[in-house]
Design brief:
Elements lengths: L8 E2 L5 E5 L2 E6 L2 E6 L5 E5 L2 E5 L5 H22 L2 E8 L4 E5 L2 E5 L6 E3 L5 E6 L3 E6 L2 H14 L9 E4 L14
Antiparallel strand pairs: 1-6, 2-3, 3-4, 5-6, 7-12, 7-13, 8-9, 9-10, 11-12
Length: 178
């Protein structure tokens, strides 16, 4: 049995979980999320707990069991606490500014780069080199942060670029001097 999949998910106060066929809807103080369950997995809500079960020990059922439980748990955490991902802009002349709900990067290109937040995502700028991406959907927050980092990844010689908060960039030695 999957160690993660067999754990029941406790439903905190103020959160409602409803199962409609193959869809699980989670509604909480910060918003509403839904996840579609893959075919062999079954989900039931029993007295303030969500129980995820699988019908057999086939390879596909085992792999989907823990995944399904984690997706539902992530939605419950998202509608109660939310998720956030920090980014740092490192480099001389590299900076970020808030422009309404959008953010504008100066990353050494000949033009500023404007990033618009997707639905359900908010940007917060602290100083001129820190950005926080926050929202209720863990997957959307992570993907948005990855797309921002992709604009100018940290390079290995000077470490300039956009990196995750706390990310360690492996540095390379440059050309050997004579």
């Amino acid at each position: 049995m999957s160690r993660i999949g067999r754990l029941p998910i406790d439903i905190p106060a103020g959160v409602t979980v409803s199962v409609d066929g193959r869809d699980v809807f989670v509604k909480g103080p910060k918003g509403e999320l839904s996840v579609t369950i893959a075919r062999p997995i079954e989900v039931a809500v029993e007295e303030n707990q969500v129980i995820v079960t699988r019908p057999d020990d086939e390879r596909e059922s085992r792999s989907l069991h823990g995944l399904t439980r984690t997706l539902i748990n992530n939605n419950i955490i998202g509608v109660t606490q939310g998720y956030s991902k920090g980014l740092e802009v490192v480099g001389t002349g590299y900076r970020v500014q808030q422009k309404g709900s959008n953010i504008e990067f100066a990353l050494g290109f000949s033009h500023p780069v404007l990033v618009e937040p997707p639905a359900g995502i908010t940007f917060t700028v602290e100083g001129n080199n820190k950005v926080t991406v926050s929202g209720i959907d863990k997957q959307a927050v992570g993907e948005t942060a990855a797309n921002i980092r992709k604009i100018r990844k940290p390079e290995p010689y000077k470490g300039k670029g956009v990196r995750y908060a706390g990310e360690v960039v492996r540095r390379k030695a440059g050309k050997a001097g004579k």
